[in-house]
Amino acid sequence: xxxxxxxxxxxxxxxxxxxxxxxxxxxxxxxxxxxxxxxxxxxxxxxxxxxxxxxxxxxxxxxxxxxxxxxxxxxxxxxxxxxxxxxxxxxxxxxxxxxxxxxxxxxxxxxxxxxxxxxxxxxxxxxxxxxxxxxxxxxxxxxxxxxxxxxxxxxxxxxxxxxxxxxxxxxxxxxxxxxxxxxxxxxxxxxxxxxxxxxxxxxxxxxxxxxxxxxxxxxxxxxxxxxxxxxxxxxxxxxxxxxxxxxxxxxxxxxxxxxxxxxxxxxxxxxxxxxxxxxxxxxxxxxxxxxxxxxxxxxxxxxxxxxxxxxxxxxxxxxxxxxxxxxxxxxxxxxxxxxxxxxxxxxxxxxxx
Length: 353
Ligand code: DAH
Fold this sequence. Notes:
Blueprint: H1 2-16, H2 22-33, H3 38-45, H4 54-90, H5 109-123, E1 127-128, E2 134-136, H6 137-140, E3 172-174, H7 180-192, E4 200-209, E5 221-231, H8 236-251, E6 257-264, E7 267-276, E8 292-301, H9 303-308, E9 317-323, H10 325-333, H11 346-349
Helix pairs in contact: 1-4, 2-4, 5-10
Bound molecules: 3,4-dihydroxyphenylalanine.
């Protein structure tokens, strides 16, 4: 029987070393340590062994049972270890791989241009004044010296608003330009000291609206930046100096400026403001044609407008200008279609860094 025990132990250990998974472990335990295993048979049969042999066989059987149990435990933990190290090898995390780049947002080209305008005019002492987008006829036209029926209104085809309390002589509308902000700004300032209103130097940016057939150069909504300076003794040369300096700061120190006589109801005299084309240097190209780019309108604030704003035209003078920041952005970034600005096409917006 001792030989039999030796054989049982040897066979069990040999088989254990070939076990590679949980199912194998379970099977092995049933076969070699289970109720019907050869080893348990020996315990069951101890009664049939002689008294002399019994203690030695019993002891040996117990030793083998312990040995198999501990070999089993050893195999369990060896297999666990093996599984762990296999998964550490296989699923290895490579921390040196470059991460996925985050798609960063960026500023809209119009916003970039506006912020640059704010910075430049800020350096020249101009404050930003925000004015409403819903106006009435009085502020958008009448107080700016466009009486009802004035032909200059034709250039600004207007979105009128229907209101229940409609006042037909002064309907609400979407502002067609930022110039009505001049009236609000002047009146606000003049109300603080009507006999001696303070000097003003401000820009008034914002969206304006016109009824347009849209095409590559026309949109029903676009930005303007209005400029206004009011004080005692302000002259046309101040206007020219300011806009010439702005052009150099915005487009480079070599930039030339040109003023052409024009007409606006709210300025006298009035001018168109051009800059020498920064693409061709003024020799004439596809974009400019003549070597000059039209950037905006300007002039000396009309005495009637000054009076409507609460400033005595005998004491005060001032200049005003209106710029198209989208036109500036189109020239700088070679944007060929103004409709791209508000289409929110990420392929377009992502090009400006
Ligand atoms: N408001 C004018 C327009 O939209 C632009 C303009 C021209 C504004 C001359 C001014 C100016 O302040 O002086 O057509």
